[in-house]
Amino acid sequence: MDNRIAELAAELGKAIKEDERVKHLNETKKSYDEDKDLLRYVVEYNVQQKAMANEFEKGDDRDEVILKQIQNRIDELYDLIVGNEAFVAMNAAQEAVNAFMNEVNGIITLNITGEQPCTHDCSSCHADCASKK
Hints:
- By secondary structure, this protein is mainly α.
- The chain is 74% helix and 0% strand.
- The two termini are 39 Å apart.
């Protein structure tokens, strides 16, 4: 790789790291990682998923009552996880960073190809956008 390109990429990476959206994501990840209840729910959710897979692998010998109990617990855990304040905050922050990175990639693509990439957000589309057809 050309040294100049590597230097510019490193500079861009440092600038992105300093963006408020990225800083906010890192803060929310810290809160997520420190939420003991949330982490316990996630671990149990994964264990329950594995238990369900193991029960399904039994084929005709699987116990439908056990499967229903596992599914009910998975549903409970899912609601606890997605309703958790730390999870909601981190998810929203991740979405903001993803949108930001898509903008950055769009600018890079525009400068490489001369064409604005389709974002599938019709507010940015041109009359000939493929997703409008």
